[in-house]
Design goal:
- It contains 13 helices and 4 strands.
- It has 345 residues and is an all-alpha fold.
- The termini are far apart.
Length: 345
């Protein structure tokens, strides 16, 4: 098997896919989180400011989803096909909600009528909230496993089987984390009464996250089999949950000192460490079979050919610096507080 720096190609592509989806969760996380607070803002001006805070960024942040989905399909087509079969309804709902969210951002301020703006406000709030929740539901199902049979074919039900208690808890945890991320980002972009309102909402969001995260973590340790096996075999990686805990604990401290940019960084690190926990917990498995472990999909039986992975890794080495430069330029260009004008949403 071909290697690069002593790491085999499937493992490297596993890291690439994980990095892409981590970038998506962190950057689009504050977009979805900001939208999930939308109806908590009472004034039309406050809602416009909140939308314009993410206005120059939200569509660029979705690039991570497109690239991540393409990388998953190109690198692990077996896993891509099986997971879409198992999660067909959540993914279709996800796509519909993405369209509605985009329409709400574009159309909300196109007319002055109150009923028009109110209708799009509800669509925007519901779509952001459900997208964040569904992403957590999908993650919860990945951790629990699927009814995968011979030839890696999904043999479970389609309707509502994805809404297990654990998946629901993971969904609420993801939503709460995104809402915390979104509130911190909006604090960076706002001032005045809206800023004071967000300070209050952020405290509620952090309480929501701590409760949901604690319940989900406890359930994971008790009821999800083999969750600590990889950590027992490699004790050095116990530093990951420790770093995640320290990152979580640092967020309220930084917020209390009004260091919002640093708080956003540590909130992002929290997401990164939690996703690293998931990745290390599963490795080298991609999808667990609840019927027979022999049918589980791994990075080795799901990967494309060595030649294909080698070519794609070369493209990653070329494209990654360009992508990083683009996002650094984008966020530097649109830093600072939101100011409404005639071109605003």
């Amino acid at each position: 098997m071909d290697t690069f720096l002593g790491i085999d190609y499937p493992t490297l592509w596993y890291l690439v896919v994980g990095l892409l989806f981590s970038g998506y969760a962190i950057l689009e996380g504050f977009d979805y989180g900001a939208g999930a607070w939308h109806l908590f803002f009472r004034k039309d001006e406050s809602r416009r400011i909140a939308i314009n805070a993410i206005g120059p960024l939200w569509d660029a942040n979705q690039v991570w989803l497109i690239i991540g989905g393409g990388a998953l399909f190109a690198g692990f087509p077996v896993m891509y096909a099986t997971m879409l079969s198992a999660m067909y309804i959540p993914f279709m709902l996800f796509l519909v909600l993405l369209v509605l969210r985009s329409a709400a951002i574009k159309f909300r301020s196109a007319e002055e009528m109150k009923w028009w703006r109110t209708a799009w406000d509800y669509i925007y709030f519901i779509s952001n909230t459900l997208i964040a929740f569904l992403l957590g539901v999908v993650l919860g199902n990945v951790l629990q496993g699927f009814a995968i049979g011979p030839n890696y074919a999904y043999q479970g039900g389609i309707f509502f089987t994805f809404l297990s208690p654990y998946a629901l808890m993971t969904g609420f945890t993801t939503l709460s984390l995104f809402m915390t991320q979104g509130a911190i980002f909006l604090l960076l972009k706002t001032e005045g009464r809206l800023h004071a309102r967000l300070t209050f909402l952020l405290r509620k969001g952090m309480i929501f996250f701590i409760i949901s995260f604690s319940m989900t973590s406890l359930y994971t340790l008790i009821f999800i089999p083999g969750v600590t096996d990889n950590f027992r075999e490699n004790p050095v990686f116990f530093i990951i949950p420790l770093l995640a805990f320290l990152a979580v604990a640092n967020v309220p401290r930084l917020v209390s000192k009004k260091k919002y940019f640093q708080a956003l960084l540590f909130s992002s690190l929290t997401m990164a460490f939690l996703l690293m926990l998931v990745a290390f917990q599963l490795y080298p498995t991609l999808l667990i079979s609840t019927l027979n472990t022999e049918y589980s999909i791994t990075i080795y039986n799901a990967a494309s050919s060595q030649k294909s992975l080698g070519i794609m890794l070369t493209i990653v080495l070329i494209g990654a610096p360009l992508l990083a430069f683009y996002f650094l330029f984008l966020y530097r260009t649109f830093k600072g507080k939101v100011i409404l004008d005639d071109t605003s949403y």
